[in-house]
Amino acid sequence: MTKLINDVLNALECVDRDYYSIPDISFDNGKLIDNEKTRNLERRFMQAFSTEFSILNRSSSSYKDFKFDFEVPKKFMWYDNPDLNIRRTWEELNNRIGKEIDMHDYWEKIPDFLVHSCHDDKSSENQKIIIEAKVNPSSSRNEALKDIFHIFIYTNKYNFQCGVIMLIHTEKDKWVKWLLEYMTNNYYHGNRDNFRKIYVIFKKGYGEDTETFTLDEIIKEYHSIFGINDLDNKKCPLCGSKMVKRTAQRGRSAGSDFFGCTNYPRCSFTRNIT
Predict the structure, then answer these.
(1) Tens of pLDDT along 29-42?
(2) Less CB within 10 Å around the terminal CB: N or C of the chain?
């Protein structure tokens, strides 16, 4: 686990019990009635987290001249030369979940937390970490889908060293099903190598143990539902395209055979031949 993630976990453990809930939040059949209180809950929690992270790390040489802020708008995800897979994913998600979530509005909103030097300099050394967080106990599938989408954009297009999805009060198995839905719809996920720098943090509540996994580890752990071991039909488990046998042309693996997706470069899934 990287120092960045350890710093995140240390700050998370310092967040006080009071920030894990707001009194008098009402539910109806498991759904929150007062959405504004939900937003306040997550805003309060991440402000407390940001404070603790700053206190623990402000003097660290690792973060010298870096900003701990909420100031970079999500509008910087628009491009002069847009990625058509990102555009397609945004349009399809907007069509599917637009009644619950205003994707136009959300696209312009600030991220939950980031540490960076300057959003105009997208070199990896200047883009430390970015976090999308959910604290609401009844966070919906649609909320999960949009956060997964955005974390893929940040880690692939803006070279953040680590992307984090922080899930408070969310069951791991439930979230993994949402991830599976996202992946099987062939929504934008970028380079699969970047799955190793996307971390998912699960914490059921204050005082509960924290579980941390890379996205790559989650997919391998749940290989049965992602179909990673099922290559007899030569279908890509991420996008459903045909898998074919290829030979690596360069690097340490040059000359070795592997299964690759025919949808490359839109889908970069590969599987070693064992």
Answers:
(1) 555 555 555 567 88
(2) C
- For 119-144, the pLDDT digits (tens) are 566 666 777 888 999 998 888 888 89
Tell me the residue type at 71.
E
Query: Is the pTM above the cut of 0.90?
Result: no
Q: How far apart are CA 238 and CA 148, in angstroms?
A: 14
Enumerate residues 6+ apart whose C-beta is below 8 A from 212.
1, 5, 9, 199, 200, 201, 202
